[in-house]
Design a protein that fits this description.
- This protein has 209 residues and is α+β, with helices and mostly antiparallel strands.
- The protein has two domains: 39 residues; 149 residues.
- It contains three helices and 14 strands.
- Strand 2 and strand 3 form a beta hairpin.
Length: 209
Amino acid sequence: MRVPIASEGYIFIVPLAVLAAGFAWAGLPGVAGIWFLGFLFVTNFFRDPERVIPDGDGVVVSPADGKVVAIVEETDPLLEGNYTRISIFLDVFNVHVNRVPIAGTIEKVRYNRGKFFNAASHKASLDNEQNALLIQGEKHKIVIKQIAGLIARRIVCKAKEGDRYALGQRFGLIRFGSRTDLFLPEGTRLEVAIGDKVHGGSSVIGYLP
């Protein structure tokens, strides 16, 4: 079964394939092998499999594949009141396509240029380069942040203010290695704990109040 590839990956995949084939044709199998390994790594990184999106009142799905590394009470400039931040760390072997955790309208998009600390560290949420989306759902507002990591140097966000998104719909990605933070309102019933592995669009993070 063919695994779809995110369109943003072809700018890397095609040159690596050409280089591997070129060195193989030139009779340099060792060099060709190095480029072929790079081709396999990048193709794996940009895979974009289809997901079965769960249904249910107030359901919140994971915005990314990865490991839950933090669950803390926190405020955010885009939100009023107290929220729970769920941080998901994506290593280079995870799918890096981001999906919206609830159905709703994109009210604000805020990009902040920052630093590139390890995405698994606490400082990443505060200081790293990041892109935040404020989403107005049926009853609640939430925020999702795409945060660049130690080697990530490119945040891709296709969402624009005023766009309407369905639950679990793709809206962007981060390359290579990153973190996604999700801010949910007080009263949300969480279904994840620190250390859990989640999958974007299909894993249930919790249920809104």
